[in-house]
Amino acid sequence: MQQHSALGRVLAVAAAAALTAGDYFKARLAAAKQVKAKSSPADLVTDVDPVCERLIREQILARFPDHDILGEESTESGAEASARAAASRAGSPRLWIVDPLDGTTNFVHRLPLSTVSIAYSERGQVLVGVVYDPYHGEVFYGVRGQGARLAAGAAMRAWADSPGGDPPGERLRASATESLASCILATGFPTRAPSRTLATHAGFILSERVRSMRALGSAALHLAYVAAGRLDGFWEYDLNAWDLAAGVLLVEEAGGIVRGLADGRPYTLTMRDVVVSGHPRVADAIIEALQAIDGGGAAKGGGMANAHGV
């Protein structure tokens, strides 16, 4: 990966911020937490989530004080509010899109399956993405036009602290599997009833057509695993910009594909229902299988559930 100077600086800050936040919540996994519901009883937040976002914001603004930040914990709860926030800021000339703790329900239940997701975009195009899994010490990252890579946390921290030359890591390549019957797919289940019912129905339909299904509870982790070829595909209804932005870049830079579930259109920051795969035939097969559900695969009401972190 050839390091572009401006985006290299962005990557270094994104990686450092992700490592700081992820290591913080990893240390708090077994500790007592304050837990409350946000938009529904299944939509949880802890006292750790806003601390992680604050740590990320401090590092970004220390280096880029004039940049805009769209963060989960600083956005009003609920799918409608999240959609409005993404729509109003998607065209920002310099926007960071931050999920400080993706997989909050896992975190509450002490399941070590949560990530930090940080993306950087300019006028709607995501240029840098970082997804950090602190429990396995894995940093998945990508820069637009330069590929996606996987690095050990310690190696990435050393580079981010003193960036020079190419960042560390092995190149990511998405799965080349073409047949849906040979695929391992992943999905998530939204927090509100209409989209949860829709997702469950979709899961039953696809489970009969694939090798196996997974639901790890972190959309960003699913996306990183598609980029790494560990999963052949992923779909989910009603996700937020901060769930998707970084991981989508990883998938695209690893040679995979991201499309809208309803109509197969290319990804944008305002998209909420997505299908992701290594091979386009898999995405086509998923979309075709779900076409009959609720008028073509889109969540009712254009997105009534807030599916972050469940």
Explain the layout of strands and helices.
Blueprint: H1 5-27, E1 35-37, E2 44-46, H2 48-63, E3 68-71, H3 79-89, E4 95-102, H4 104-108, E5 115-122, E6 125-133, E7 138-143, E8 148-152, H5 153-161, E9 170-171, E10 184-186, H6 193-207, E11 212-214, H7 219-227, E12 233-236, H8 241-253, E13 257-260, E14 274-277, H9 280-290
Helix pairs in contact: 1-2, 1-5, 7-8
Give your account of this protein's structure.
- This protein has 9 helices and 14 strands.
- With 310 residues, it is an alpha+beta fold.
- The chain has 2 domains: 5-171, Fructose-1,6-Bisphosphatase, subunit A, domain 1 (Fructose-1,6-Bisphosphatase, Chain A, domain 1), CATH 3.30.540.10; 180-302, D-Maltodextrin-Binding Protein, domain 2 (3-Layer(aba) Sandwich).
- The chain has a 7-stranded mixed β-sheet with strand order 3-4-5-6-7-8-9, with helices on both faces. Strands 11-10-12-14-13 form a 5-stranded mixed β-sheet, with helices on both faces.
- Helix 3 links the parallel strand 3 and strand 4.
- The longest helix has 23 residues, at 5-27.
- The radius of gyration is 18 Å and the shape is globular.
- The two termini are 34 Å apart.
The CATH level-2 architecture of the largest domain is identified as: 2-Layer Sandwich
Percent helix, as a range, is 25-40%
Q: How much of the residues is beta strand, in percent?
A: 15-25%
How many E strands?
14
Sheet bearing the most strands, described? 7 strands, mixed
List SSEs in N-to-C order.
HEEHEHEHEEEEHEEHEHEHEEH
Number of helices: 9
Q: Class of the largest domain in CATH?
A: Alpha Beta
What would the average pLDDT be, to the nearest integer? Answer: 89
Cα distance, first to last residue?
Answer: 34 Å
Structural class: alpha+beta
CATH T-level fold name of the largest domain: Fructose-1,6-Bisphosphatase, Chain A, domain 1
- What general form does the structure show? globular
| CATH superfamily membership of the largest domain | Fructose-1,6-Bisphosphatase, subunit A, domain 1
Give the number of domains.
2
> What are the low-pLDDT stretches, counting only 5+ consecutive residues below 50?
296-310
Rg value: 18 Å
